[in-house]
Request: fold
Amino acid sequence: MLKGFLKRLAKESPAAKNTVQPIIIPRNEHSISRAAISQNALKVLYRLHGAGYGAYLVGGCVRDLLFGFRPKDFDIATDARPEDVRKLFKNCRLIGKRFRLAHILFGKEIIEVATFRTHHEKAHEQHAKKSHHGMILRDNVYGTIEDDVWRRDFTINALYYNIADFSVVDYTGGMQDIKNKLLRMIGDPEQRFLEDPVRLLRAVRFLGKLSIHVSPETEKLLNQLSHSLQHVSPARLFQEVLKLFQEGATAATFELLHKYRLFEQLFSQTAETLNQPETKKLLDEALINTDARAKEGKTISPAFLLAVFLWRPVLQQSIHLKTEQLPPYAALEKALQSVLQIQAKQLAVPRTLLISVREICMLQHHFNYRYGSKPYRILEHPRFRAAYDLLILRTKAGEPVAEIAEWWTAFHLGDASAREKLLKTGNKPAASKKRRRGFRVHSKS
Ligand code: ATP
Ligand code: MG
Reply:
């Protein structure tokens, strides 16, 4: 019976869906406890409710609580307009041009309060606009909770926790999908992916992070529609890529991106080198390490991950340039410039991050210098740790740098006398005779 109900929901048009009655799951039939909700989010919910407005937790936080994860932030949906929200909170800031949102500030924690919005199809032309690819360009009309639910992407992201009675309000069958560990698009999956192709990446993120599955029909679309990511701005893609690789489960996420040919839309140059076993090994090792670090509560450095992703295309190009008689340092510098330039067209990587990536890669060259005072300066470089980690990964991936990596392991762990001894055994590379004057690991910015 429930299956029939869910099928009917999937087929109905957004407008027809507004007549659907929600399932209300009372407090004693779900696992969300107030103890797991941020105190600040509760404060905001109670104050909105006290002022007579509807107030709900919504989106990722409800989903994560139901899956037993700790949400990384708490978003609230309400029928109060942004100006009404501002009147209730002194610590409120209204943001957003495309759609106004209220941010309630509690020190470092920001609680985002959004007024219910309606699906673009219901909205007046003037406020909602689509591109010729079917993508939504503007989507800013206030609505009711019944409207708000249908513009969300997946059923598991469309559950509302109502502060009035601590129930969960479910219009789309999301609760059952959570139980079945199923990722299901609201509405027609093809149309919804096309109107916002970022949903392809969001799908992969949730599949990887939550270890859930997707229906075969939707799975096919992930592959088929991967090209539509080309219509998304590099700035938005970069934001999504950060999220993809910042939540643990990066190894599983990468496998899925690769499987559905989405990875090549984000890192085309890396994708071209994936047929080389060293590239695959380097990425696998890096992502497994990253996930282990995330489990220990350590942060994930975007610069390091980007350097890992780009290292193989950089290396390949620099080898090619060396055969054209460029000295190693110049070849690496030129290769980096070209690879980063092409990458920045796909993802709008901020300049500061690009500089760090460049430094991590250039240090791979400087690691060859194991004499005099230079190794001490390398050790003090802010990117030393990330560069050293990349060096170790390169060894594991089968690049012939094991001897250099061993030397640097001993050097950075050793005491003063061990270091002096190592400097006597360190090789002076042939290229150093011709090397430029000075030490230019730091980028000019
Ligand atoms: P996260 O754990 O990363 O915060 P999230 O699902 O909360 O995941 P947000 O970007 O914070 O992601 O979005 C909040 C909610 O807004 C989502 O749960 C979903 O309901 C809706 N949403 C976000 N992005 C989209 C989108 N591209 N299309 C439709 N709905 C979206
Ligand atoms: Mg969220």
